[in-house]
Amino acid sequence: MNKCFCVLVTLFFCFKLQAQELNAQVIVNSDLVNQTNQQIFKTLERSLNEFVNTQAWTNEEFLNQEKITCSFVLNLSGYSNDQFEATLQIQSQRPVFDSNYDSPILNFLDKDIVFSYQEFQPLFFNESSFESNLISLISFYAYVILGLDADTFALNGGNAYFEEARQIVNLAQTTSRKGWKPADGVRNRFWLIDALRSNTFREYRQTLFNYHRQGLDQMTTDPNAGKRALMEAIQQLEPLFNRRPNAFLIQLFFDAKVEEIVNLFQEGPKVNFKKTEDVLKKIAPFFGARWKQIRA
């Protein structure tokens, strides 16, 4: 009896340690690289897929249907002597309650991607040390994805994940690779996690929660109430814009949401969209042509 019990406990904890949270697709696009032998790029793609999808990023249990759908697209622009140059497009989605629709949460392009990789090099994440720029890059965005997803289900639910991402940034201060330090630009990894953790940009996270839980998740049962909640959530970004007109997170929000907002308010029950339209034209003028397409 005791032996059987020990076996069951061991299996249980092994399962917990091997729990995965992400349903990720990693694509390595080498079209722009003049390289006859493409095998290393295929190996890199396979290794990254295994790394992201088998790593246990948290201590939480995720059922298969609860795993976060996301993608990492490495568009290589240079390769020589195990050195890679690229851009990285990161996207994630979140299911809407009682529907087969997935709402885009993150759509971000990181242009400062340079890393070293040797074929068949093992990829291991260590939360207490900087292993390589490649591992830190992928791990950082894994935690950002987890944090943003959690924020859509509970107000400030992503705090623990953003702390993990901040730790990765802190450890990466020892590297000369770009994107980890405040002097490396205004829209890099350092400033992204700094903004997500800062009370200065609290409206972004409040909007994420209200937009999804009070807005989108109501759409199948009460479309009118859902749309009103969506409009109120969008309007919550105006105070942030008034304080920080060029806020990184405002651009981040609309890069993910512009198509969805247009589609939602073009279809279904009509609501008084005028106030929200004025706010959108003010805080996201870069999408002015899209807002004109809404006929509410």
What does this 3D model show about the protein?
- Strands 1-2-3-4 form a four-stranded mixed sheet.
- It has helices spanning 2-17, 39-54, 133-153, 159-171, 189-197, 202-215, 223-235, 237-243, 248-266, 274-283, 288-291, and strands at residues 22-29, 68-80, 83-95, 102-116.
- It folds into two domains: 57-197, no CATH class; 204-291, no CATH class.
- With 296 residues, the chain is an alpha+beta fold.
- The model is unreliable at 1-18 (pLDDT under 50).
- The protein starts with a helix and ends in a 5-residue tail after the last helix.
- Strand 3 (83-95) and strand 4 form a beta hairpin.
Task: Supply the key terms.
2 domains; 296 residues; alpha+beta; 11 helices
Strand content: 15-25%
Order of helices and strands: HEHEEEHHHHHHHHH
Helix content: 40-55%
Shape: globular
> Main sheet: which strands, in order across?
1-2-3-4
Topology:
Elements: H1 2-17, E1 22-29, H2 39-54, E2 68-80, E3 83-95, E4 102-116, H3 133-153, H4 159-171, H5 189-197, H6 202-215, H7 223-235, H8 237-243, H9 248-266, H10 274-283, H11 288-291
Parallel strand pairs: 1-2
Antiparallel strand pairs: 2-3, 3-4
